[in-house]
Amino acid sequence: MAAPPEPTRGPRIALAAVIAGLSLGLDLWSKAWVWNNLRDQAAWKVSDKLLHFDFACNPGSAFGFLNDVDWARYFFIVITLAAVGYLVHLARTLPTTSRAAFIAIGLIAGGALGNLHDRLVRVYAGDYCVVDFIVVYLWGGKTWPAFNIADAVLVAGVLLFLLVLPRTEAAADQRTSA
After folding, report:
1. 3-state secondary structure the chain
2. Is the pTM of this model over 0.70?
3. How far is CA 12 from the centre of its chain?
């Protein structure tokens, strides 16, 4: 029995672009709100021991990686541009059988572009930085390091991509062997 034809690429790329645009828009909107309302202000407690919104200026990456290195901004800009270029390549070459793979590409791209925007334009106390603001409390009153919407959608996109990639590759292998 022949496999059904692959969906056309155009709608899949459009899906990835819409997801990227929505993710980027939500990230930029939330960071603008934080910049205008929480910068140099007290944290906004959403839930007393669970979730706070608190402005943080992060010149590095997750968990403070390269925070104190002068060249970190340029390094992350180059890495982000390379990653987005690779995501475009994936969108143009990945088998179109998995809608979820294109959603993942959109999430990763939207998150990467949101943090790239900050690295290019956000300056606080003389330093370029990414605005982080979501503070989640863990057990024992400890907190997870502050993050933002871009970080959340990027991680969600990577996890989704890792989940669907084996099925996408299997579908591609099945089509080439048929």
Report:
1. CCCCCCCCHHHHHHHHHHHHHHHHHHHHHHHHHHHHHCCCCCCEEEECCCEEEEEEEECCCHHHCCCCCCCHHHHHHHHHHHHHHHHHHHHHHCCCCCHHHHHHHHHHHHHHHHHHHHHHHCEECCEECEEEEEEEECHHHCECCCECHHHHHHHHHHHHHHHHHHHHHHHHHHHHHC
2. yes
3. 19
Tell me which residues are annotated as active site. 132, 151
Tokens of 7: 């969906």
Q: Confidence band (pLDDT; 50, 70, 90) for 140? A: confident
